[in-house]
UniProtKB/TrEMBL annotation:
Name this polypeptide is given: Iron chelate uptake ABC transporter family permease subunit
UniProt topology in membrane: Multi-pass membrane protein
InterPro entries: ABC_BtuC-like (IPR037294), ABC_transptr_permease_BtuC (IPR000522)
Principal cellular location given in the protein's record: membrane
Sorted UniProt keywords: Cell membrane, Membrane, Transmembrane, Transmembrane helix, Transport
Length: 380
């Protein structure tokens, strides 16, 4: 959606198999999996990357995030000289430019960082729990479920408080996840990455259709839904963003707490159970983490797709499959992609702008097509 902005108005490890494809045969006894203590065996498939290499990646990702945050504050659909932006950041901001920077761009940047990290970490956790390379909150119906429940709360029940309808977003995200995994497991062969992706797309389209139908009841709700459904970082106040911060922090803590167990699950359920992991409890905590992260992000930014799909794959290629490093790196790089998409959307259609959800889909769709066209879609 193009609109006038606020500024202008004011089942088992695959390491051995991959080694066999690369070198002709798999070396016995060498795996890419962590031992029961959670530390990875130093093989050449990702866990062998040095700590210094990964620390440099973390430092580089943090530096890139800081740079994009600065660009997000300095660049917008309204051109403001950099000197004036710096002046209102360090001095009084009761001018028109000060209100644009502090009331529009700073909250927008903060929301981009929080929503991007939430969607990226949620996607990484989903991919690790299911060993499905196509897992993403937007593709597997989680975002659509949260959006559907949120629209029911706002459009039908008349809720206006964020603390009132955010719980509906959590419930919708959980219900949609259950439906997708049940539908994706039907038929011969059980759950496969492609079947889950197809089930997620089908559930997403169904929920989006019903959501649009519900929004037609009230023209005012329809206008709000049309703006929100495309995915946007604009129009939220800092107070509103801070209201969802506890949910995002709770989801992130849950995700980090299960990273050693996710390394064990990469070996397969049987091996993880033999290593002492309680799979039911781990999956429960992982599902709760995804629900909190996705529900809170969707409640304030709308359904944004491909962030949770693209970034974990890119991070995995850079740092290896060790979840103890993959999750923090994803939390830093996912908002970089979202902020970059938001900046592009602001400048390509000046003085109007393109919503970040549209730009993110444009950037992520080629990656998704390339991923599903791979000759063999292996489990993670």
């Amino acid at each position: 959606m193009i609109h006038v902005t606020e500024e202008t108005r004011s089942s088992g490890p695959v390491a051995a198999e991959r080694a066999g494809r690369a070198g002709g045969k798999a070396s016995p006894g060498v795996s890419d999996a962590p031992h029961p203590g959670g530390r990875g065996v130093r093989s050449g498939a990702g866990f062998g990357r040095s700590r210094v290499h990964r620390l440099l990646l973390l430092a580089g990702a943090l530096g890139l995030l800081v740079l994009l945050c600065a660009l997000s504050i300095a660049v917008g659909s309204r051109q403001i000289p950099l000197g004036q932006v710096l002046a209102v950041l360090t001095g009084p901001h009761d001018t028109q430019i000060g209100r644009i920077v502090w009331d529009v761009r700073v909250p927008r940047t903060l929301l981009g960082v929080l929503a991007g990290s939430a969607l990226g970490v949620a996607g990484a956790v989903m991919q690790a729990l299911t060993r499905n390379p196509l897992a993403d909150p937007g593709l597997l119906g989680v975002s659509a479920g949260a959006a559907f429940a949120l629209m029911l709360a706002v459009g039908v029940m008349g809720m206006t408080s964020l603390y009132g309808y955010v719980w509906f977003a959590f419930a919708g995200a959980l219900a949609a996840s259950v439906v997708v995994y049940v539908v994706g497991g039907l038929g011969r062969g059980g759950q496969t990455p492609v079947k889950l992706a197809l089930a997620g797309i089908a559930v997403t389209f169904m929920l989006e259709s019903v959501t649009r139908g519900v929004s037609l009841i009230d023209p005012q709700v329809l206008n709000r839904y049309r703006y929100w459904a495309s995915g946007s970082l604009a129009g939220q106040e800092t107070a509103t963003i801070l209201q969802v911060l506890p949910f995002l922090v709770g989801g992130a803590i849950l995700a980090v707490s299960i990273t050693p167990a996710l390394n064990n699950i990469a070996l397969g359920d049987d091996v993880a159970a033999a290593l002492g992991r309680r799979l039911g409890r781990i999956r429960m905590r992982g599902a709760l983490s995804v629900m909190l992260l996705t529900g809170a992000a969707v409640a304030v930014a709308g359904p944004i797709v491909f962030i949770g799909l693209v970034v974990p794959h890119a991070v995995r290629a850079l740092s290896g499959p060790d979840q103890r490093w993959l999750i923090p790196l994803t939390a830093l790089l996912a908002p970089c992609l979202l902020l970059a998409a938001d900046i592009i959307g602001r400048v390509v259609a000046r003085p109007q702008e393109i919503d970040v959800g549209i730009v993110a889909a444009f950037l992520g769709a080629p990656f998704f097509i390339a991923l599903i066209r791979r000759r063999r879609l292996a489990e993670l």
